[in-house]
Each structure stands twice: as C-alpha cells, then as structure tokens.
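Q: Can someone sanity-check these two? First one:
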Amino acid sequence: MQVPKEGDYVAIQSYKHDGSLHRTWRDTMVLKTSEHELIGCNDHTLVTESDGRRWVTREPAILYFHKHYWFNIIAMIREGGVSYYCNLASPYTLDAEALKYIDYDLDVKVFPDGEKRLLDVDEYESHGKKWHYSADVDRILKSNVRVLVDWINNRKGPFSQEYIDLWYQRYQELSHRR
C-alpha cells in the first residue's frame, strides 16, 4: 500500500473485536503522514453505521491516529470551542481500501471547558465478556487511558489549541486548491 500524501482522501473503517464492521467514514483528507501517525480532517463527511444508517458529520474535525497508541482522537471544531471524542482502539493499519482499527468501546469525551468523561464502560464490560477480550488487551487499554488522560491534562498534541489551529488552517489551504 502506498502511503497517502497530503491532500489525498482516505476512507476510515472501524471494526469490533469480532471482526465485524462497526462504522465507515467515506472521505477524510490526509493532512500529514509519518512513519507512526496520520493526521486528517473530516468536514461534512458521510458516515455509515453497521446497520446501514447514514449521517453526515456536522462540523470540521481534526483526526489523529497512531501506530503505537491504542487510541485515536477526533477534535471537533465548534463555535463554542473544540470538543474531543477519543476512542480507545487498536493502533491503525492502512491498506488500499481504508485506514482501519478495532474500536474497543471505551471513549473519553473532553468538553471545551476541559471537563472529561469516560464513556461506555458498560459496553466495554459486556463486549469484553461476549468477545473474550484478553487480559493483555484489557491491560493495554487501561494503560492507554492513563496516557490519553495525561495528554489531555498537559494539552499535548491534538489537545493544544495551536495544534488544532495549525492543522485546520492546513486543511483550509488544501481545500481551496481543489
């Protein structure tokens, strides 16, 4: 698979632990790729759920994926400030079809005022039993929650306003070339 270049579009596919397709985002503009990460932007992107329901994202969002961390970050740029939705998920892989990862149910939502909420703990517990999440997966995910919270608390990477401003400006520059 050839690594997508700045300005290319990729689809994103999230799966569940059992291999079933969970959700697909049709077009994400690639803003940067490196050996370990991919930064992209969605803006009014078509999303298809596993049950066939479709909807369109409402606002621009900067997306952060990493090949070593077990989370990805969606920074939604809204009038009231940036809100974050962080998925606890496997590191991403990339093939000719899409950027892919396994969604492990747990999510951390960060509001513009900095409030954090851990979401979907019950879903994580029930899916863990249903799909037999291993002790290693559980340990890795819990460790990555701590890393993620540290990033949030220290405004590291996607959690800094400068990061959002830089990548959203780059998205706007690339969009206007089309």
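And here is the second, same format, sequence then tokens:
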Amino acid sequence: MTTPTGRVVCDITISADGFSAGLDQTEERPFGDDGGDGSGAGLHAWMFDTPDENRAEIDRLNTAGAFIMGRNMFGPVRGAWDRRWNGWWGGDPPFHAPVFVLTHHAREPQPMDGGTTYHFVTDGIVAALNRARTAAGGSDVTVLGGATTINQYLAAGLIDELRLHIAPLTLGAGTRLFEGVPPLKLEQLAARAASRVTHVTYRVST
C-alpha cells in the first residue's frame, strides 16, 4: 500500500476567543450571532476588506488537490435532501477540485462549473479522507470546516497542519475550535500579524 504523500491541512478563521461562528445559525444568518448581520463579515474582513494585505494567505486557501467540509458548511438544509442546495458559493465555486461533504443522507455527486464536484460521504470522516486523498493524487487535502468537522479530524489525529486566521473580535459563544479535542502538541511554523487578522500556522504532532 502506498503511503500518502500530501499533507492533511485545515484552514479556518476564528475569533480571538476561538469561535468560527456564533449561536443561532440560520439560512439568513449563516454565522449566527456574530456581532453583525450574521454573514461573518467581521470574522472575514481580512479577506474581503483588506485582500491585498493578505494576498498570500488568500491565494493559498484553495490550492489543495481535494477538500473536505461538513454539511453545515455546505448549506443550511437538514435531514433528507428535500431541496436542491448546491452550496453557498454559486455555480462556479472557488475550489476547482473535488469536495467531499460529510452527511448522513446519501446524494448523487453534484458537478459544478470550474472543475468543482461535490461528493456526499455517508460513512464517516476516515472514509471521506481516504476518498479525498485518492482524488488529490499526492497533493494536499484541506479540511475546510466548519469547526465541528475540524474538531473531529483533530480528535482522531488526522490533521498534519493547522492554519488559523484569528480575527480581532470575540463572539462569546457559538461553534468553537478545539471543543472536545484532547490535548495537542503544536509546533509553530509561521505567524504574521496584519491589520484585521493574525495568521498562525502550526504543525500538529501526535
């Protein structure tokens, strides 16, 4: 059996107190009580308000050979797929690679413009990772989120590199990174402060 050559990385924006979204998330307010209109504008101001200052980190976001995300990150639809939801990103998502969506409800793959195809995985995080590694063909696999999904991979010891973008605000409650994750050994690889974010990259040791 060939050993995978690509890393498994996660890339997520969190508040200074560790939350990736606030309480009471809805379709109209996907980031819930985030101190604003629920769109995550404060958390992600570094991407949309100061993109030139953070160009390297933005350009690195979608460079993996395959991606994994939880169903909550894919969209607000719960239970059976009772309506056709194809993600928050429109007809041409930014991934341009296979995306494996964790779900309890089977659905046929959904090809999109630009090379993105959503694959819906019902048999757990390890199965999703194995499929993503095969699809990536030796390139990195990125676990995009949300925090609940990343926490499952961290708890299982399946993440090699953790890329955090820490926004200068607090949410007080919500979906928190590291919730339920056992103690980790982290080696800091890089850190850079910008006006609306601090970027920190860690290697995760087992």
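A (reply): Looked at the second one. DSSP finds five helices and eleven strands in the chain. Helices lie at 45-48, 55-60, 71-74, 125-136, 147-155.
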